[in-house]
Specification:
single chain; Aspartate Aminotransferase, domain 1; Aspartate Aminotransferase, domain 2; 7-stranded mixed β-sheet; 12 helices; binds pyridoxal-5'-phosphate
Length: 394
């Protein structure tokens, strides 16, 4: 292969062509028409192609890069920890400072005693399901219709017999139910919020039936909805989960997942011993990155600003004639067009105008706005201008 240089556009273009061909030939594809935008670097709310083309990242890796790309505090923490030690056996035998400190901080924030680290959101759900089954000695796992909890078999095979705000559906929770898994705000359903009365009824029904309530905060955690965790907005209604699952932004851009519970529930993993183990969960570099991201969110008071930033986007976009509705929780937004063909056409227009957005797994009539929480007022106004121009061209 020729050397990779920007000085000569032709040479650079050749390298990009080769890379694109190799991408299609050797990287497993899950969509028939990938975007194929090459990423050279990313900073703040932007990423750049090798040719210097700039894109607003309004996906943020699907609510991962909450503290912005190349966050200097996270980068420093990663470099520092990588130089000290990387992987030494992780699951709960050796005392590793980044893991212990991060678990302690998360426990305090969640009001739950123990945190078990894993690698991803799906694995956090797997771990929570296994813990609930061991703790209750029951098998059935229930979830909501249109819920997304990950692509592995555990979350996929949970029984989707509950519907947000449908009181009748709560009757399926019975003395065979190990746990009910629910997102406090449904992300991939297209940002759907439950009524608090229904959430309170769900909590009560679980307690009455002896089933555990598992909150999936994989997408809503680390400030995305305007509080550090979405559950903090419903605690005042007396609704608290037994297990909380986290991932995405908790690694500050590094792969990390976790589930948290009180000791009496988490203790189920010791009986029989090694009830759940994994090789990389709680990797010291990922925990150091997550801790730095959490500190950054707190020191810069970013979570307090999330609601007003989301509100500004909503104000700027809601009156466009193509916009049917905006569903929003903090900076997790679905802009509803009511038509999937328009939505797909809009994605093409966005690509031309330097916006990266997408649709939702179970809602392709709306597009996503979930930028890094570090986004500034200027960047919100500027990206909205580009979005409105694209909507004008629909
Ligand atoms: N739970 C929710 C709410 C999610 O949005 C996702 C991913 O989008 C997952 C779980 C799965 O996380 P992961 O992709 O890290 O397995």
């Amino acid at each position: 292969m020729t050397k990779n240089t920007d000085k000569n556009g032709g040479e650079r273009g050749g390298v990009s062509q080769i890379l694109r061909r190799q991408f299609l030939a050797h990287v497993g594809q899950t969509s028939p028409s990938p975007l194929m935008i090459e990423v050279a670097r990313a900073e703040g709310v932007f990423f750049y192609t090798p040719e210097g083309r700039r894109y607003y990242d309004l996906i943020a890796g699907v609510s991962v890069s909450n503290v912005g790309h190349a966050n200097p505090d996270v980068v420093a923490a990663v470099q520092c920890q990588a130089a000290e030690y990387m992987h030494v056996m992780v699951y709960g035998e050796l005392v590793e400072r980044p893991q212990v400190q991060f678990a302690t901080r998360l426990s305090e924030l969640l009001g739950l005693e123990c945190v078990y680290f894993v690698n991803s959101g799906a694995e956090a759900i797997e771990g929570a399901i296994k813990t609930a089954r061991l703790h209750t000695h029951r098998d059935t796992v229930l979830k909501m219709r249109h819920a997304y909890h990950g692509s592995s078999h555990g979350p996929m095979s949970a029984d989707a017999r509950l519907t947000f705000n449908d009181f009748e559906s709560l009757n399926v929770i019975d003395d065979h139910t190990a746990c009910v898994v629910v997102e406090p705000v449904q992300g991939e359903a297209g940002v759907r919020l439950p009524d608090m009365e229904w959430m309170a009824a769900l909590r009560k029904r679980c307690s009455d039936a002896g089933a555990l309530l598992v909150f999936d905060e994989v997408q809503t955690g680390m400030g995305r909805t305007g509080t550090m965790f979405a559950m903090q907005q419903i605690e005042s209604f007396g609704i608290r989960p037994d297990i909380v699952c986290m991932a995405k932004a908790i690694g500050g851009g590094m792969p990390l997942g976790a589930f948290a519970a009180n000791r009496d529930v988490m203790g189920a993993l010791q009986d029989p011993p090694l009830g759940y183990i994994n090789t990389f969960g709680g990797h010291p570099v990922c925990c150091a990155a997550g801790l730095a991201a959490l500190n950054y969110l707190e020191q810069h008071r970013l979570v307090e600003q999330v609601e007003s930033k989301g509100e500004l986007y909503e104000q700027l976009l809601r009156d466009h004639p193509q916009v049917r509705e905006i569903r929003r929780s903090g900076l997790l937004m679905a802009v509803e067009l009511g038509n999937s063909e328009k939505m797909y056409r809009l994605m093409e227009l966005f690509k031309d105008s330097g916006i990266l957005s997408d649709w939702f797994l179970y809602c392709d009539t709306a597009f996503r706005i979930s930028p890094p929480l570090t986004i500034t007022e200027f960047e919100i106004r500027d990206s909205s201008r580009l979005i409105l121009e694209a909507l004008d061209s629909l």
